[in-house]
Amino acid sequence: MSEQQLPSRAKIVIIGGGVGGTSVAYHLAKLGETDVVLVDRNDLTSGSTFHSAGMVGQLRADPTLTKMNMHSANLYRELQATDTPPSWVECGSIKIASTPERMEEIRRQIGWAKTFGLDLHEISPAEVKERFPLINLDGVVGACIMTTDGQVDPSQLALSMAAGARKAGIGIHTFTRVLSIATKDGRVCGVETDKGFIECEIVVNCGGIYAAEIGRLVDVRIPIVPMSHQYLITENFLDPAAPVMASLRDPDNLIYFRQEVQGLLMGGYERTSKPWKTSRESLDEIPKNFNNMLLPDDWDRFEEIAANSQMRVPKMAEIGIKSFINGPEAFTPDNEFCLGETEVGGFYVAAGYCAHGIAGAGGIGKVMAEWIVGNEPPMDLWHMDIRRFGPAYRSPAFTLDRIQENYEQYYDIHYPLEERQTCRPHKTSPAYEWHKANGAMFGEKASWERVNFYSNHVGNDELRPFGWAGKNWSNSVQVEHKATRDSAGIFDESSFAKIKVSGSRAGEFLDFVCANDVVRGVGRAVYTQALNTKGGIEGDFTVTQMSEDSFLIITGTAFAHHDAGWLRKLRRENGFLDVDIEDITDTLAIFGIWGPKSREILQGLTNADLSNEAFPFMHSKEIEINGITLRATRITYVGELGWELYIPADKALGIWEALYKAGGFPCGYRTIESLRLEKGYLAWGGEINTENNPFEAGLGFAISKKKENFYGAKALKALSNPKRKLVAITFDDIRQVPIGSEPIKIGEDVIGRIKSGGQGYTIGKAIGFAYIPTEHSIAGTKLEVEFFGTWVAGTVTATPIYDPSGLKIKS
């Protein structure tokens, strides 16, 4: 393919020639997909890549990102042996703790590194000095080192991957500006450039700081903001004969260092962040000629970073500065990448690298190429999936405030149950003011303000978990837990996403999408998964048939955009365009009432017959309370008798007040977590995701025995005897609460990592969930789990732990 003349057609067009775009091109070629064109408005690496710091660390808090970064390091090592090496130096990286709290974090990271086979290990301050002789050890508590981390020249890395893509036959066209993107029937069909039109099936937006602008060409919101990020490079002063020093991070002092030739590169994350070309009132407007350019020096904002660097490395006060770099880097609201297919079919995005895109670039290219070729995520990428951002992020103010908050906390230790503080409250339940007046303590999820617990419910503080799990813990949850188990708790679940699927073929469509038999007649509710072609769980929700041609899907608060997007994708690709899919979340409130007295309380408010015979489990019907018609569904997420009530939002407050006055005990979402873990009810994004299939998750009961043509069914035939299974692990001390990613071992063999955990107040034990090899999944198996460097005994326990026969929910 000639690079001088732009082709009129290609299957895939990649927009952007930095490390992201060239990595996607390189990995597509590796998969044999070479009908690809890459275009860039200027030269390769002319956006953010050329001014990146080039540090490559592998271990991250997210297992998926760790795997991606491990691929990056392996790839850069391989590329170094090619004709176009990227200047990879495997110098290792050190992270120091300047506080006891940071040392706790390091020991936790060392623990989860074991589950990846990564050799992250603790070293003494003296050993730090050996690896980084310039350091002042004052205040250093301890450290860890990863010897296989390294550094790379970002521009050379992009050029190396571009060379590999070219060699495979992929065309790269620089100085080619995209003017518009054509769509037809909900998916892309071409790209108009200043050099001509390219007909295509897929567009991959790797535009870096320009990605949001490119997304707006097809009305897709990509919530990234170019942020000023600064570092400096000193004059050369190191001995050229000495080995390259390990890179060094001191997060307590907001700084990082790496060797640059015979000098030092030093930067950090200041507490006074500054966006570039974005405000709370307007979206980014990057100048058309901003190519290979930097921003003006901003020494005032760098002052704290500079002072901290001189404290930690006194030589920094003596040596001269060769260059000062202030470049815009694209950040997202949660410091995770924006990856995947958007709501416009065939329009993919790989952007928002948050200043760690060099470490991630190899892995980004790999997963994106596999996603494009396979038409679905190749692994659990939910935390990076563009679909995690809902309508709130169309607001420039909401997006910018969240990004600045995140940037300024980049190096903070983030404890479990930590809450964001900006942009609150944004979306609220109809009963919000009631909750507020009655002692509610709120959390936020997907822009919704939700009750965590009520502070006036005072419990036993002696049950506070050890360590991090106890940082943001409340003794109120145990009170609400007990009230639900003994009487009846009422829960405001209005934030749950609600999707209406309707039309003459709605039932046929949902029968195709869902693994369970969801069309069972009007008034039936069914728990089901939606699978991908590998049998992985793409969605986990309930479906209620409201009429012959109308169904209501209830899914998690954060999954409205994701699940509706998946449904629309399958509708578009499988000939169901006559089916309507509508997000109706804001039109309905949801209140749950659960517990042994729930029937008694609810029956006192309605003339409808709520007896077991008249209103069986997993049935749904319209009832009337206080003259208000609403839908009641007999279902539970806590393992008790009860109902969910779906009420028109403008009439919901009165229903909540009626439930309370009749004897319902107000409870929050943290109580739901405690109750559901005892019952073994799972959460998508927690215990289950696209990498898990129903059989290993213990969800085989939700797979249809009657139909064989549902989406993902073919893959299930080879998965019915899983090599690993999801198990509950209990700890005798209820205060020994796992928070996730802790390694699990039997003998000396690490066999898995914790997925989730909490306290079971009814059983009096702490609970964790994890996938472990099937041969170790037998109830009663003894194993050990590492908590901050200490191994603690646990026991595999049969699930459900609470009410295993299910009599309570069906009585």
Index terms:
six-stranded mixed β-sheet, single chain, 811 residues, eight-stranded mixed β-sheet, alpha+beta
Describe this structure in words.
23% of the residues lie in helices and 28% in strands. The chain is built from 18 helices and 38 strands. The strands form 8 sheets. Strands 5-6-4-14-15-16-13-17 form an 8-stranded mixed β-sheet. The chain has a 6-stranded mixed β-sheet with strand order 8-2-1-12-19-18. A 6-stranded mixed β-sheet has the order 29-30-31-28-22-32. Helix 11 crosses helix 16. The longest helix is centred in the middle third of the chain and has 18 residues. It is globular, with a radius of gyration of 27 Å. The protein starts with 11 loop residues before the first strand and ends with a helix. The model has no long low-confidence stretch (mean pLDDT 97).
